[in-house]
Amino acid sequence: MREDVALIDRVATLFYALAAAAFAFLALSWLVQRPSMAVRVVEVTTPLGEVDPGLLEAVIQSDVRGSFFTLSLQRVRQAVRKLPWVREVQVSRHWPGTLRIAIEEHKALAQWSETELLAADGTVFRGTTRARLPRFEAQHANPADALARYEEARRAFAALGMSVTRFGMSDRGAVWVEADGRLRVEFGREQFRERLDRFAQTLSRWSEEERAQVTRVDLRYRSALAVARQPVAHGRVEAAEAKGEGT
Known about the structure:
Elements: H1 2-32, E1 41-44, H2 53-63, H3 73-81, E2 86-94, E3 98-105, E4 108-111, E5 116-119, E6 124-126, E7 135-137, H4 143-159, E8 164-169, E9 175-179, E10 183-188, H5 192-204, H6 208-213, E11 214-218, E12 226-233, E13 236-241
Parallel strand pairs: 1-3, 7-8, 10-11
Antiparallel strand pairs: 2-3, 4-5, 5-6, 8-9, 9-10, 11-12, 12-13
Helix pairs in contact: 2-3, 4-5
């Protein structure tokens, strides 16, 4: 008899515990769906340089669903992450009803294609800009390899008082550079560092007038270079080519 009573007590205790848990769950479900538990404020805590505020607002309105407790932070993060120029996103809740979004934008270094840019870390991302950036023609090359060669060229040309305006690299690694929007230099795919140094040494021996006349330099020779100049008489282009074994 005592064992039956003890069993009934245990069953009753379990029943009350389950009932209490169910009640608590229903009460919590009711509470989180109350208007007072809604996300009332969305704060973008970082300044936006290139991200379109209109696109960001549209994404927030579309993907901030549920109450303060039930909305998916991961879903919001993934949606914002797809926007042009967005490199990384952090999303967090702040009581009582605020959602905070921190956005890290890409730092664009060059125009990679008509709809893509190259970031300073070698990432190719979707986006456009009105900023005047060097234009890459290296879509078939590895972005990291192209960036490494570009940085070498940029530093060397900057030391000569020139800016790289276009940079090209083939899938086989052949490099060419356009400087100041007028001078094209062909480096080929071998001995890039040595040819860059040879170009700098050659240019340093020319006068300002000679530099201004040069439109093309071809360094794809073992120990020589070819130079094309602007017209200096009778509308003809002077070309001087030093013979050497091509590489």
